[in-house]
Amino acid sequence: MTIDLDDLVQAMTAWRRDLHAHPEFGFEEQRTSAFVAARLREFGLDEVVTGVGGTGVVGTLKRGGGNRAIALRADMDALRIPEQGEAPYRSQNAGVMHACGHDGHTAMLLGAAKLLAAEGGFDGTVRFIFQPAEEWGRGALAMIDDGVLERFPFEEIYGLHNAPGLAIGAFQSRPGAIMSAEDNFEIVLRGVGGHAARPHVGKETLVAACALVMGLQTIVSRRLSPAEIAVVSVTELITDGTRNALPGEARILGDARSFSPAVSSEIEQQMRVIAEGIARAYHVEQTVNYTREFVPLLNDPALTQEALSVAQGLFGADSVSVAPEPFTGSEDFARFLGHVPGCFAFLGNGDSAPLHNPRYDFDDAGLIHGARFHAGIVRRRLPAA
Ligand SMILES: [Zn+2]
Ligand SMILES: [Zn+2]
Predict the structure, then answer these.
(1) Is the pTM of this model over 0.85?
(2) In this structure, which ligand is nearest to the CA of 163?
(3) Ligand nearest to the CA of 362
(4) Rounded CA separation 307/323 (Å)
(5) Which of 103, 114, 247, 271 could anchor a disulfide with 20, C-beta 3.0 to 4.6 Å?
């Protein structure tokens, strides 16, 4: 049975706006996952399993006798941002909004499921993975910990993210590193606070903290190879001092980005060396808490060529490009690529407000391109006999 693409666009637009009006924060996607599961069951998938890694959903569609399986992934979560847009379908959940377009990603993957369930055109198994909590960087891991790779095995995985600033219908990816790791750190300095007029009596922490903030800048500029891309950003400096009292405690928080585990661990190691040295020089105590929130997103080169070639066939060569350099944003999709090769790509969202902006809105004109890419990569990688 052939699907009328205009009908599909209408259906995806209605789903997207429904999801947009009812955004849910990471791991709270109860309504969203019920909505997704209900649609997948309507399309007649072979199996729909909910509650994978919390609120995740996995749909399975089989055609022919092929024993290869590939996965397509969308994210479902929204952000704690009060929406400022005025669309009739604006958020009805105060303080939460789909400011990253995951409503669109979910709708386009549902569209692909409907298309593939109705039309087939492939031989093998497709896993439709709807993951929770992408923004936390925890949802993919929760699904993996819940056995998604063993319970619903697949050999390749593909995912899309909308990109404001890229034209509608434009498609972009990159072999190898495309998005960065995100590490967070908190350094606490502890000394002895006291009177602002008598610094020499105590062990105040603010001057030490300032020295440390400057010292951290040398990790990228003096410790890492100039050929590596990395960022170390101090984003907060909080003390317990007041107008006439020196602080006994200072906390330095920040965020580091890199594109390889080796660089990430070098940043952590150097941070510990610098914190220890500066604390000793200023006679204060220090602790460093360094956590890894997102791992770098590393696209498989051969499968990225396949994705680019499918997109060229669908959207025309002029609409498809290779990103000249990786982005320093992060994506939870990277966790899947730690186990299975695949490709993550960007789809134009036109000149919309930026991601995570209170006026951002996914452009429904992109839905059909996403659905067609998902269906196209399935048909390329699981060709019908
Ligand atoms: Zn986001
Ligand atoms: Zn996102």
Answers:
(1) yes
(2) 2
(3) 2
(4) 13
(5) 103
